[in-house]
Amino acid sequence: MPKIKANNITINYDQQGTGEPLILIPYLAADHACYAFQVAEYAKHFTCISLDLRGTGETDKPEGEYSTELLADDVAAFMQAAGIQKAHIAGLSLGAATGMWLAKHPDKVQSLSLHSGWPKTDPFIKTVVESWQVVARALESVPQMVILSIFPWCFTPELYAAKPDYIKALADFVQSRPAQPLTAFIQQSNAVIAHDAEDQLPRITAPTQITFGRGDLATSTRFVERMHGSIRNSEVLIFEGCAHAPIYEKVDEFNQKTLGFLRRHASAATA
Fold it and tell me: Which sequence spans correspond to the domains of the chain?
């Protein structure tokens, strides 16, 4: 896998496809492979660059405090080091929270896709994430915590009932990836708890797609008004019958509707 030195760390990434660059920012505890179902379609139209964030995958895991702003600075530095002047930016959950902070670098963002995001951590999200930290410490295993504690927030009860083999396949996928060290998970999840990009939203100038799962409790549609109302050039899409992770629960619909947005905001050459 290729690696680039940026912002004093070595960042691992995967690149597939051709066309305008599309940077995919992973969610909490995940590495670049988390968008495999999307890259399969996106790469037909874009150069998909999926990152391992600081603290995950094969990217460095330095000590110290992590923040969503720092993660965004890593992405901007990665773009600079890779010679990418401007890119489409997309992320789910922590990836969306990180994407909001790229408002600091408006010249680098051609379009912004914020999936299952939130502008500022509230007491509910804080409590949920703190519970994941407790379980991760108790199990001494981030992958097992993801499967037992994060999965039920990501998928609806209906998916568990209808497709148990699919849930098991997703669990096997999590276990097949490089395990995030417990210390790095605590650092990264603390960044989630401390997230506050509320003041950044009015600074976002790129066309922005905001999406949620209708059944998401963690980052629910309670955030629609604050995000859509603050980001001037934004549109909202709700995926019915989904919780926090429509990227897995409604793969075809998610890919079709998000790719439609991306292609509308690409140049004629790649649209």
Answer: 3-119+195-264
